[in-house]
User: Fold this.
Amino acid sequence: MNQHLNTALDLAARGMPVLPLRAGKLPAGNCPACRDNACGGRPNMKTPGPCACPRPCHGWAAATVNPAVIGSPDWATSWRQAQAVAFCPGGAGVTVVDLDHADAVAWARATLPATRTVATTRGEHWIYRGAMASSNDVRDGVDIKSGMSYARWLGPGTGAMTALPDTVRALTDRKPSPVRPVTVPVPAGGGECRHRTPAYLERGIAMAEERITGARSAVHHTVYRTFLAVLAAHGRCGCLTDTHVDRLFTAAQAKGESARHCADAWANATTALGM
Assistant:
């Protein structure tokens, strides 16, 4: 039997909702239409983009403890291509504090109650008994993974699991992340807008904000495509300013995107356009 499938079935038998991960630590699409994220869905969304699956077929919402689903023909290709197994912490009644580097681990050791720990590639997972809302970037190198989220299974870890403390819950009680500084592309047209009117840019930014705000699914994909469209129209003529970018980032963060994800999407869009 496939090693990852075998691990998934064992975890499911212990009450941990599981799902397969493909390369890049992303959820695998468990139906042909969603294979390799072809549907354009955001991995952790319950409704993955335009796909018309009768039930969520990938992401945290697809995680299950049902062996008939896990071992079904629909999931067979995903398990053959899987690079790892993931689980939904909230569904298992736990919270994972994902510490992404050594400084974050040092902070946790000085601040949080001891609990079960699991070594990761760059840091550690601290696992507490009890579920809460998930949140990324609660501080530098620290993500909270619990409800409506997934985490890689990296082994049982060491130490006794303790109850979720208020210290961890309080990490999500914060104001929205400030917009991360970004670089506006250097004008290629001598600083003069080829559209000849500021109203054109204002309308374009307003429409971009509306497109992001109105997204009901595939938010991450929508944010990237909107950034790409704005940069294609205004990125080379010198009219786009940091104020305009801040407006786009603010709209994206209001839909749940983190400042880091916004900056990454912006950077990817500029790279795609050769800026």
The longest strand covers residues 94-99. Confidence is low (pLDDT under 50) at residues 43-50, 175-182, 184-191. The two ends are 48 Å apart (CA to CA). The CA atoms of residues 256 and 275 lie 27 Å apart.
